[in-house]
Amino acid sequence: MNLVDLSILVTAYFFWYSSINNQGGDRRMVIKISKEDIKTLERLNIISQIVPVKEKIKTFEERYNCSFQKFEEGIKREEDFQKWDDYIEWKAYVEKLKDLELSLKEIEDAKDIEIS
């Protein structure tokens, strides 16, 4: 099941669950969601951002047949503007991946969840 299918399923579940929990004439929608559900949705959001970033990193690794660290060491010894442009872009993806992975860990470790 991909992320879009899961999102549709979660949305459908919320509407179904809220419709069976309406009391008498009260037509207000009641949605019950646990803190774990919120953490799961946030994890899925971060993972959906991680996947394309990893794909971009993999593209550079395949293009240059090396890791970012090896490429970074080599780029400092030569003057090639195309490689330098790729280096800047690749570095941005590597840093973005680190940030997203940190966010994922923070979600995993979250104790207090506030809904606003």
Our measurement of the CA-to-CA distance between the termini, rounded to an integer number of angstroms, reads 29 Å
Please give the share of residues in helix. Answer: over 70%
Summarize the helix and strand pattern as letters. Answer: HHHH
Class per helix and strand makeup? mainly alpha
* Average pLDDT metric: 81
Description:
It contains four helices and no strands. It has helices at residues 3-20, 35-64, 68-75, 81-109. Helix 2 packs antiparallel against helix 4 and helix 3 packs antiparallel against helix 4 (81-109). The two termini are 29 Å apart. The model has no long low-confidence stretch (mean pLDDT 81).
Keywords:
4 helices; 116 residues; 0% strand; mainly alpha
What topology does this entry show?
Elements: H1 3-20, H2 35-64, H3 68-75, H4 81-109
Helix pairs in contact: 2-4, 3-4
In short:
The chain has 116 residues and is mainly alpha-helical. The protein has helices spanning 3-20, 35-64, 68-75, 81-109.
